[in-house]
Amino acid sequence: MKKTLQEYKSVIEPVWCPGCGDYGVLSALQKALLSLEISPEEIIAVSGIGCSGRLSHYLNTYSLHGTHGRAVPLALGAKAARPDATVLAVGGDGDGLGIGGGHIAHAARKNVDITYLLIDNRIYGLTKGQSSPTTPVGLTTKTSPYGVYEDALAVLPIFLAYDISFIARAVSTNLRELTDTLAAAIRHKGMSMVYVLSPCRTFPVLDAKEMKSLFQPLPDDHSRTDKMNAMELAYVTEPMYTGVFYQVEKPTLEDRLQAEIARACGKENGGERIQIEQVLNSFA
Predict the structure, then answer these.
(1) Which of 52, 79, 244, 256 is placed for a possible disulfide with 168 were both Cys, Cβ 3.0 to 4.6 Å?
(2) Could you give the domains of the chain?
(3) For the ranges 126-130, 230-234, 269-273, which has the lowest average pLDDT?
(4) Confidence of residue 63 (pLDDT cuts 50, 70, 90)
(5) Where are the beta strands (DSSP E) in the chain?
(6) Cβ pair 2, 35 in contact under 8 A
(7) What is the C-alpha to C-alpha distance for residues 88 and 63, in angstroms, rounded to an integer?
(8) What is the pTM of this model?
């Protein structure tokens, strides 16, 4: 039986501010899941803290709202427990690039098959307008009354340096492109990072109208396997490019672990899987 969009919508109504870009992200994600025809009961959504951290509540899937900065390790645990499930992690610029930023590099090393939506509005919106790791230099905020004096993180080049196997940038104001990008990220086998610029209406560091002219699709001749060209394009600021910057196929953590288990069983147990009773009896 063909699925409907309503099947991916939670009974919990979003409580974001009217006009928040996160509505666009939620809608695009639901449409992407529908296009892939993934059953809601086969999806696990894990989220962190902040406005974007609420997104997991608004999906009709298994969901877990974790602690500050820990969306990625929780998603890794979910994938380890249910390798057959589609696992999504969702976080904001503070949750994902501040306190939780250190987790991304090690998830990338493992190439765990999860999709991470990192939604950036360049401000701490839920906690009333403090500067974040991506707030532009000079901007006056609650925590920088004389202007931000730290450089903003160059996010895409960081992800490229980590060699995440799928890296894309999108904007919440372009629903069609965002939907297609999310669908491609979820289809990809390995760690997928979708970096979404999404304006906050209450603390508008990003202007929705300006975003429409600032962001343009990547050049048609860009090769997704060319990391050096992707790095060069990631640093271009006028225009800022959207689309899939980098995508490569390489073994996932599950692939490598299964190969390691096979080698261990071949050496220790004649090729047969080792049963828990054998392990317990070895200590008897």
Answers:
(1) 244
(2) 5-248 (3.40.50.970), 251-284 (no CATH)
(3) 269-273
(4) very high
(5) 43-47, 62-65, 86-92, 115-120, 166-171, 192-197, 215-217, 240-247
(6) no
(7) 9
(8) 0.93
